[in-house]
Write a structure and sequence with these properties.
With about 120 residues, this protein is mainly beta. It has one domain. It contains no helices and 9 strands. It is extended, with a radius of gyration of 19 Å. The termini are far apart.
Length: about 120
């Protein structure tokens, strides 16, 4: 395979990509990678069940570098078993933004008393 071609794998595949000091693991069936300029962008990936039916599929396009991280400008997500799909167009991208812990707190609905979970 030359680095200027796309390739589709026919088996489950583990793909590691180095993003700064982090390593990202993508586990999927049939990834299609774009090897132009050795960017190895994940253009397409899908997951199938044991019978070979597509459970979900994502197609990424319009990759750009954002502070050293290559991200897609658009992603098309499909879930054929549910007849669902969505096209996501990213208007702005800010990788590695520090998020406050308060963004992940969901207050309980009125009238309910929260109980600690020890699991």
């Amino acid at each position: 395979m030359s680095s200027s071609t796309s390739r589709e794998s026919r088996a489950s595949w583990n793909f590691f990509e180095r993003l700064g000091e982090k390593r990202i693991l993508i586990v999927t069936d049939r990834p299609q990678l774009d090897g132009r300029d050795q960017s190895w962008d994940v253009r397409k990936a899908e997951r199938r069940d044991a019978k070979g039916n597509v459970l979900w599929r994502v197609t990424n396009d319009d990759f750009k570098d954002h502070a050293g991280v290559r991200l897609p400008g658009t992603s098309d997500v499909q879930e054929p078993p549910h007849g669902a799909d969505a096209e996501i167009k990213f208007r702005s991208v800010e990788p590695n933004v520090q998020l406050g812990d308060d963004l992940f707190v969901l207050p309980p609905p009125s009238g309910l008393t929260p109980e600690p979970a020890d699991c």
